[in-house]
Design a protein that fits this description.
The chain has 196 residues and is mainly alpha-helical. Helix content is 61%, strand content 5%. The chain has two domains: 31 residues, no CATH class; 116 residues. Strands 1-2 form a two-stranded antiparallel sheet. Helix 2 runs parallel beside helix 3, helix 2 runs parallel beside helix 6 and helix 3 runs parallel beside helix 6. The termini are far apart. It comes from Ranatra chinensis.
Length: 196
């Protein structure tokens, strides 16, 4: 048997998966496909769906697109000043995937993520190592969403109270002055319309 023949992947092997290489050609690659990996992948998808990232349930997306899309979505929800452009595009080239995973790995320490992960673990879909990071990101994004919701609620109440009062509340002097000016403006417009 020739050396080249010995290195060729065996057809029909359950460990082979068709992927697109850097040149855009379909090739057979050996993948780690065990029960724990599939279990962790499903947990990641469930976490992302529970957090509100519903693109994770789209059947046509690759595992990479679902997981990395979910990671960038969680990071974006955190609204931290990270000074990094995490533009996620589906069906990216290998170069774009590498750049994006490197940016994600660089951002995580800035967010004080307690879990270490390397770009090759994300690109290689090592779900066992990706899972704790996703779990932390989802928790962090939910906390941030709650804080932001509380802030926006207080802001909305404040804005409402600046201009409006409920019938059972006593208006303050600023409210009365503002209302008086508005009534005067309406009266002037009505007088002008009556004359012409």
């Amino acid at each position: 048997m020739a050396f080249a023949e010995a290195l060729k992947p065996k057809t029909g092997s359950s460990h082979l998966k068709t992927i697109i290489n850097a040149e855009g050609k379909e090739v057979q690659a050996e993948t780690r496909d065990d029960e724990q990996q599939r279990f962790k992948y499903q947990e990641i998808i469930d976490l992302l769906l529970g957090a509100g990232y519903y693109r994770a349930q789209i059947k046509g997306l690759s595992e990479f697109d679902k997981v990395v899309g979910g990671m960038t979505w969680c990071i974006d929800i955190c609204k931290m000043d990270l000074d990094v452009d995490l533009l996620f595009q589906e069906n990216s080239t290998i170069g774009q995937k590498i750049a994006l995973t490197e940016k994600i790995v660089a951002v995580l320490p800035k967010m004080k993520c307690p879990h270490d992960i390397e770009p090759h673990q994300i690109q290689g879909l090592d779900f066992i190592h990706i899972h704790p990071v996703i779990d932390w990101l989802v928790k962090r994004s939910l906390e941030n969403r709650d804080e932001r919701g509380d802030y926006l609620c207080l802001y909305a109440v404040h804005q409402f109270n600046k201009d409006y009062k409920f019938p059972h509340e006593q208006p303050d002097d600023n409210f009365i002055q503002g209302a008086f000016q508005n009534v005067k403006a309406v009266q002037v417009i009505l007088m002008f319309n009556m004359l012409f």
